[in-house]
Amino acid sequence: MQWHVHGERPIYENPWVNLWLVDVQQPDGRRWEHHVVRMRHLAVAAVMDEQNRVLMMWRHRFITDSWAWELPMGLIEADESPEQAAVREVEEETGWRVKSVKPLVYGQPANGITDSEHFVFRAEASEYAGPPTEVNEADRIEWIPLSEIRGMIDRREIVSSGSLIGVLYLLMDDATRH
Fold it and tell me: Domains of the chain: which residue ranges?
């Protein structure tokens, strides 16, 4: 059943996150203001090498005060495509360049509260360009064998939705090839 939108208004805005109140009416006739978080969209890169390993970053997230492995990812700038953002983020966050990038999967991680879109790409590693220019992103950067990813998910060592979507899709691709 589709809800009807009567209007919307911002209540907080900044360059990263915006909070809106949306005047909605549900199919049963109930009408109320729903909070919606409007965000810039995200590009995620699942970078693979010739040894079937995934490039991942071990990082701390202060919001949940937790450490976990993540794929390179970042916000898409106004002047770039999702593909360009993924390539840029890989080099900025890991120091690696990629030779090819192709769409892997698209997701909306919490579409009941936010309009955030995640564009996940598979990229092939090209060359190491040097240390990351984003020095505050990761404690360490490692190539993780794809065969170890399932165990890492089970142990909650990979928890971000963008990273989970990417590595689960890689695992699915790998399983269907064999």
Answer: 4-39, 42-177
CA dist., res. 112 & res. 128, Å (int):
40
Question: Tokens 């220019």 correspond to what residue?
Answer: 133
Chain position carrying tokens 């919606």: 36
> Count of CB atoms within 10 A of residue 150's CB?
13
Helices H / strands E in the chain, number of each: 3, 10
Say yes or no to pLDDT of 3 above 90.
Answer: yes
Q: Give yes or no for a contact between 178 and 116, defined as CB atoms under 8 angstroms apart.
A: no
| pLDDT for the residue 177 | 81
Residues contacting 17, CB < 8 A, separation 6+? 37, 38, 39
Q: What is the rounded radius of gyration, in angstroms, for the C-alpha atoms of the chain?
A: 18
Q: Can you tell me the mean pLDDT for 8-37?
A: 96
The length of the chain is 178
Q: Which fold has domain 42-177?
A: Nucleoside Triphosphate Pyrophosphohydrolase (3.90.79)
Q: What is the pLDDT of residues 28-47, one digit of tens each?
A: 999 999 999 999 999 999 99
Beta strands (DSSP E) in 26-65 are 31-39, 42-48, 53-61
d(CA 120, CA 54): 14
pTM: 0.91
- Nearest alpha carbon to residue 43 among 6, 90, 100: 90
Q: Is the dihedral of CA 160, 162, 129, 50 positive or negative?
A: positive
